[in-house]
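Exercise 7.
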Amino acid sequence: MSKVRLAKIQGKGPTAFRQLVEVAKEIDRSGITVAFVHHGEPDFDTPTHIKQAAIEAMGEGYTHYVPNKGIAELREAVAEKLKQENGIETDPDSEVIITNGATLGLWLAIVATIKPGDEVLLPNPCFDAYPNMVRLAGGQAVFLPTVSQDGRFGLDKTEIVKRITPRTKAIIINTPNNPTGTVYTQKELEMIAEVANKHDLIIIVDEAYERLLYDQHAHFSVASFDRDTQHRTITIHSFSKTYAMTGWRLGYSTANREITKVMSHMYQYSARCATAFVQVAGIVALEGSQDCTQEMLGEYTARRELFANGLNGIKGIRCWKPEGAFYVFPDISDLGMSSWDFVIRLLEKEHVLTTPGSIYGPEGEGHLRLSFSKSTDSIEKAIEGIERAVETLNR
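Solution. The predicted structure, written as tokens, is:
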């Protein structure tokens, strides 16, 4: 039955991939174990002190509506965190919103600033939600080719400037980057700020993976550079990756008070507010011990080594160690297959589910995205399956 369903999948885009995920789940339910390494879902449990805070908050009555922008104590904790860790001075009363996850924060940022016909620049490869959100808002996604060198997808000022038109309204930046693992340097981000200030562009920055950094790489927040840049920047953050809280749906954003006011209005008539007791847990996450985040980072570091080294041992695959986040993005172009066709083959023959690089835009073709937020067993099974799949191609 699964083979029949595979044959019926139409197209090779995000919708088709969601169908492929359902097929993989069907295979797994049938008793054939599938290695799911496609999804950015931490396999760690949420730290105990954060869960306990939510339980206690429910007992204390945090089960009702709270202010649209979030409870004051969490907004204050966010403002303090942004000041201490990100170098961003922000007013918790008028410039911070607590959202149901970073994805909603991104959506609010886009619909609050993008009008039909506006163009939005997207360094490519990029998280597939960005272009889809831009299109849903009536805007036009304009992909920016990046400079790929030793697995790092850097930004190029010339490529950015030549794509700016009178309709260009914003640029969306993601650092550390999903899917490539690239961490933009301070010099690259200062260049973005310079271009944005010169051409009057809004900068939307997704910093969901800010704590997941390797090999001494540093994270920089664009909004920390100067007041002019901060005024045009919307910064999006998430609890999901840092604290293994994906199912809690908690994030936050900061922007100037005019943009924040519009985002708040949009929020009021969509999700209304983030869950009350979850917000209380968010305070404890930010203000409590951060040892849990370091422990998770240590495990991710070991899994990164395992995945990258294992893939590099397979003929025809080149895999560079990511600078941040928890994805490897190996180059499979030497195999002579599209990323989509290889993903299909890998699932059908070896029961390993990865994500085709083409999902993330034209610059992603010839790559796979594999997540090392999964268990060591899943990673080892994936490596073994990919090796066998490549061996059969070379016969």
